[in-house]
Amino acid sequence: MSDNVVVLEHVETRFGERVIHCDINLKVRRGEILGIVGGSGSGKTTLMREMIGLEPPTAGRIFLFDQELTPGRNVIAKLRDRFGVLFQSGALFTALTVYDNIALPLRELKLLPEDMIRELVCMKLSMVGLDAYAANLLPAALSGGMVKRAALARALALEPELLFLDEPTSGLDPIASEAFTHLVASLHRELGFTVVLITHDLNTVRDLCHRVAVLADRRLVALGTVAEVVCSDHPFVRRFFHG
Length: 243
Fold this sequence. Notes:
Layout: E1 4-15, E2 18-29, E3 33-38, H1 44-51, E4 59-64, E5 67-68, H2 75-79, E6 83-86, H3 98-109, H4 114-127, H5 132-135, H6 144-155, E7 162-166, H7 174-191, E8 194-198, H8 202-208, E9 211-216, E10 219-224, H9 226-229, H10 235-242
């Protein structure tokens, strides 16, 4: 088993004539929290979507759990129970209750009886700090922080080895943002999963990330610990970390 759960080799992304990424090389180590930061339009979310097989890169190779994500091969379907995703908006199904949103990936497996699914959903709700009352609510009735927690519970439903978080504190007030960051840190210590974190929040980077990858000028311009990255002379890095 490789020490790297995600590997990007010479990844290039183009939309028509527009170049988003050029020659991106990156390895995500097992058990770490890797933050990916960059300016608006730098392709942070696009890179994550390529890592989870939603979009193919224009060129280059991507490996997930040592399996190459090749267009036309149904690799992701075989790996989907090994990773979870929290999208920026939460992406909860609006017509389903919180309970049914979390139960959905468990029900899709068609391997577990409903009483066991109920136990697992209640456990995931408890893990993210939501109670039975919240379980019966529709997403429209939730606060922003509750949406993030419910979406995190769904992402954790299948007990993944790898978790992708896309701007998890976006739209939250400072108190809710700090609480969510502490929640992720606590779950990471308890469960030991690997995290790829897309963010623009400097506090989240400093509080959570073991390493940081910085996207700018269509390339990866810095990679390392926060202490290492802040020493970079690249103009975007200096603006982001030093204001």
